[in-house]
Write a structure and sequence with these properties.
about 15% strand; 11 strands; about 280 residues; alpha/beta; seven-stranded parallel sheet; four-stranded mixed sheet
């Protein structure tokens, strides 16, 4: 909807950025390569919802890229907010977004944002934490982040070997939660769990079976749920440094839930117990 795009007189470049422009090539690198994101300590937030959450969180937004063909009135408001926040805004030439974005329906807004992760020490006072060990699916990680933020968790730890927090699919699936829940990116799993133990946090591994039902465990104390690999679960070396295991009781025939769904159930059971305890 080009009629709603009013950026030319507001500081946008006179010429829309073509596919070979160095800024567009940088976007491609940040979207496609973890090494590029690590080198620049920056990532891409895609879509109006995620960009809006970046802005409302108060995080700095370095730059915003706009496809005028797909804009609506709400997108225009976000562009104005980005300009007021000090972001540089660039128009993309027709067809550039389709070549950049691997999604079926590319989003007309993309923002480059600095990394938002925190050191493990930032979680010392948190009383509800998710620890991801060898989690590989970016969609699952995004769901974990979204559930953690919704349940009021104090942080999420993605240990070494887990999927990149800033993978575009993880960021999209988080629906902007990555900007609102403290995230620790990295750390050897046993060392992370040892530190949580020093802080008095109860470390509970999640299992499909052969564990205590989660609704029968006191979750009003400082708690860390430890989630393992989608296919193989938690490795034995991690089990050794846990305080116990929990499982989600299921009445149906399903043997287990995927990691993202399991995280939501565990977190909201903890939130339920805490509300009941006042």
């Amino acid at each position: 909807m080009r009629a709603g795009f009013q950026g030319r007189q507001r500081g946008y470049p006179i010429t829309a950025l073509a596919h070979r422009h160095h800024r567009v090539q940088r976007l491609r690198r940040l979207l496609g390569r973890r090494s590029a994101r690590q080198a620049e300590r920056a990532f891409v937030a895609e879509g109006a919802k995620v960009v809006k959450e970046a802005l409302t969180s108060g995080r700095p937004v370095e730059s915003l890229y706009v496809d005028p063909e797909g804009l609506n009135a709400a997108d225009q408001v976000i562009i104005e907010d980005a300009l007021r926040a000090g972001a540089r805004v660039f128009e993309l030439a027709p067809g550039v977004l389709d070549r950049l974005d691997g999604t079926v329906t590319p989003q007309p807004l993309l923002a480059v944002v600095p990394f938002v992760d925190v050191p493990l020490s930032a979680l010392e006072c948190a009383d509800l934490i998710i620890v991801c060990v060898d989690l590989r699916d970016p969609g699952n990680l995004g769901t974990v982040l979204r559930s953690a933020e919704a349940a009021g968790a104090g942080g999420v730890v993605c240990c070494d070997g887990s999927v990149d927090v800033y993978n575009p699919k993880s960021v999209r699936a988080s629906a902007g939660a990555v900007f609102h829940v403290p995230v620790v990116a990295g750390g050897e799993a046993r060392s992370v769990l040892a530190k949580l133990g020093e802080w008095g946090v109860e470390r509970l591994g999640s299992r499909a079976r052969h564990a205590r039902p989660v609704d029968g465990v006191d979750l009003t104390v400082p708690t860390a749920f430890v989630l393992g690999n989608e296919a193989h679960g938690l490795p034995a070396v991690v089990d050794e440094v846990l305080d116990g295991h929990v499982t989600i009781p299921m009445a149906g025939r399903a043997e287990s839930l995927n990691v993202g769904m399991a995280a939501a159930v565990l977190l909201f059971e903890a939130a339920r117990q805490r509300r009941a305890a006042g």
